[in-house]
Amino acid sequence: MKKPLAPKHPIEIIQHGHKRVDNYAWLRDENWKEFISGNLNFKNPEVKKYIDEENEYTKEATKHFEKFQEKMYAEILGRINEDDKTFPILKGDYFYYTVTVKGEDYPRHCRKKGSLEAAEEVYFDTNIEAKEHDLYILKGRSINEANTYLAYAFNTSGSMEATIKIRDLQTGKDFDYQVENSNGSYMWVGDTDIYYVERDEFSRGAKVYSFNIFEGPEKKKLIFTKPNEYSNMFMSMGQTSDKAYAVLNLASGASSAVFYHSLKGTDKEFKLFVTGDNDISYELDHWDGNFYISTNKGNAQNFQIFKVEADHDKIIDMKNWEVFVKESPSLYITDFDIYAGKLVIEANNTTTAIPELSIVDIKTKEEKKVKFQDEVYHLSMFGAYDNNSEVLRIYYQSPVQPSQDIDLNISTLEMKVVDTDIVPNYDPSLYKVRRDYAPSHDGELIPLTIITKKDFIEDGKAPAFVYAYGSYGLGMPVGFSSNFYPLVDRGFSFVVAHIRGGDEKGNDWYLKGKMHHKLNTFKDYISSCEHLIKTGYTSAGMIAANGGSAGGLLMGAVSNMRPDLFKCVIADVAFVDMINTISDETLPLTPPEWEEWGNPIKSKEDFEYMMSYSPYDNVRAQNYPNTLYNSGISDEQVTYWEPTKMVAKLRELKTDDNLLLLKMKMNAGHAGASKRYEWIEDKAFNYSFVLNCFDMLD
Question: At 286, phi and psi to the nearest 5?
């Protein structure tokens, strides 16, 4: 089949005295905002025609491995327990848990009253809710304290918008209204009132409303409007551990502002708790008359926790803040909660990037460390519905150990494994995981998580699959996934590179991978691949690279810089047209992104630095690896035209005959498929693409 070639309609752009020509700007359809809500009403039929041609080409170019893809699908499915149930958690008189059923795409949310022997009540069956939709994303569900009403938020287009509904759990029926245009952040206040965040025209949270569920949103009350100085920030909402205060978190990049008000009195006005300058952030909680604040204020790059009396006059004068938990040179605080008068602190070791958990008694300041044995593991905390509970639910897993539900007593540190995921057709004794460190261009050591078969030989003959992200301070913890093993079983090493831009080794690890340090992110990835080659895990040209969103930018950048390293690249919802995107203030995410990448509109220095690596602007006439771009037409975070333009430009300029594919889903957004069996189909397609590139279709 003939490869699609997009027509060139050049436009000239002059920015800070620099002239560039964009031949494919026309692929941004004027009606693109309608796509976000699922209405594919193209203004320019040529845009639709080109996308259809690319999708058809992808279908034809991969037709020969359809049978293998079916085999891969069955293999992935064979390691999933299709009939499964989470271990119950007690809230009041009810045990809550989730059930998945073979043949169903979505989970059922269930509960039992009083005893695990009681009759099962399915209070929310996502399959029923999603029945009329190609895409259904449940963005949140929350039950009031009395266990009588459910508030849930969902989206059916793939956009960032959420619709909120209320369900009477006694009758199983929804109220006859719904809340539109929320960003998905909401909470119960008492048993019958809802707070929720409403979006502005730029899709950012702008206002907070409250309403009584028996009156509905028609009688909503405005209780907060985001001040103009915070207009570029995103907004989320929650409560303190003791449910004494409502907390509004405004964030952009690594900066934040926090507003609060008491839920115990009649004063419902949100007051400013604290505001952060660039790269200063805050997280707060409350217990027994005092606030506890985790922050990097005062050059505490690994964060420290302050304590201040819950008196507004004392709060606003930081002289009254006392250091409660000092910054550690070796531990970076990532999160904390309060249960039964104890701080439960999650942190990362800044050398090994391994998570740690500690318990600090608020009254005595005694600190206890929770010990785990594996060299590499992932830890997450559910906690408990009751914040006076001394027993918390934590989830523990490693790349070779399926997830375990553990009940941790925070007084005695006794741990009890109450449930372990059952993974069919999986034998952990066949595999090994290790943590290695790759020296980067400047001597920094990049942590690598490497998963292989136990009999893996480091002779440079094996292929490697290397995943990374490296942006926004989002670390990439590596827990268990049965999806590692179709490649590992075929001789691959499966590698996660914990590169700068994430926060695995601390806040400084993030700062050294953003703004004018962004090139470190790409150089770290390249150095990681070179280390794998040097240590015999693989060879040049034997690496499959993968990343999504900002990790897709990484894929585009390293493909431009070092195409010789890779056999193939998979770039998911890839942020590749960054100069044009970050120069367009009308796009929802652009102003908040300036703190992450720079502002190419106002700053020539920012513009020139970003131009040095922007994937779309650095495509040139050279050989490129086999490449697959996956995207969704309704993606509001990385708009569809970015990967589409990238593919068009690569087709024009690349000098090889390797595969170049665009797979544009016409019913998905940034998160991709919401149905679990469709998600498995997509994973099987990606792996089939990889194995086809390595001539390993068995």
Answer: -135, 145
In this prediction, residue 253 has a pLDDT band, given cuts at 50, 70 and 90, of: confident
N residues, the chain:
698
Q: In what order do the strands lie in the sheet with 445-453?
A: 431-439, 445-453, 493-497, 464-467, 543-548, 566-572, 626-632, 660-665
- Find the Cα–Cα–Cα–Cα dihedral 649, 651, 656, 659, rounded to 10°: 120
- CA quadruple 447, 450, 454, 456: dihedral, nearest 10: -110
Q: Are 406 and 418 in contact (CB under 8 A)?
A: yes
Question: Are the beta carbons of 123 and 102 closer than 8 angstroms?
Answer: no
* The three-state (H, E, C) secondary structure of 169-182, written as one string: CCCCEECCCCEEEE
Name, in order, each residue with C-beta under 8 angstroms of 337's C-beta and a sequence gap of 6 or more: 241, 285, 343, 344, 381, 383
CATH number of 11-77+426-693: 3.40.50.1820
- Amino acid letter for position 273: F
What pLDDT does 254 receive? 67
Please say whether the dihedral angle defined by the alpha carbons of residues 3, 4, 8 and 12, taken in this order, is positive or negative. negative
Q: Which residues pair with 417 in a beta bridge?
A: 406
* Residue 487 · residue 467 · CB < 8 Å: no
Element (H, E) at 396: strand 391-397
Backbone angles phi and psi of 219, in degrees to 5: -110, 30
Amino acid in position 646: M
Q: Please check whether residue 583 is in contact with residue 610, taking contact to mean a CB–CB distance below 8 angstroms.
A: no
| H or E segment and range at residue 680 | helix 676-693
Beta strands 445-453 and 464-467: pairing type? unpaired
> pTM score > 0.85 for this model?
yes
Looking up tokens 């397609």 gives 685
Q: Where are the domains of the chain?
A: 11-77+426-693, 133-225, 231-327, 328-422
Identify the H or E element spanning 198: strand 193-199
Q: What is the pLDDT of residues 423-444, one digit of tens each?
A: 999 999 999 999 999 999 999 9
**The one-letter amino acid at 11:** I
CB burial readout 130-167, b (16+ within 10 A) else e = beebbbbbbbeeebbeebebbbbbbbbbbbbbbbbbbb
Helix (H) or strand (E) holding 121: strand 121-125
φ and ψ of 352, to 5 deg: -95, -15
Structure tokens at 82: 């299709």
In degrees to the nearest 10, what's the CA dihedral of 501, 504, 506, 512? -20
State the chain's mean pLDDT as an integer: 95
Contact by Cβ (8 Å): 392, 383: yes
Helix (H) / strand (E) containing 349: strand 342-349
How many whole angstroms separate alpha carbon 444 and alpha carbon 367?
Answer: 31
The CATH fold of domain 133-225: Lipocalin (2.40.128)
pLDDT (tens digit, 9 = 90+) per residue, 48-79?
Answer: 999 999 999 999 999 999 999 999 999 999 99
Within 8 A by CB and 6+ apart from 686, the residues are 546, 570, 628, 630
Alpha-helix residue ranges (DSSP H) falling in 44-144: 45-61, 66-77, 126-129
| Residue 203 identity | S
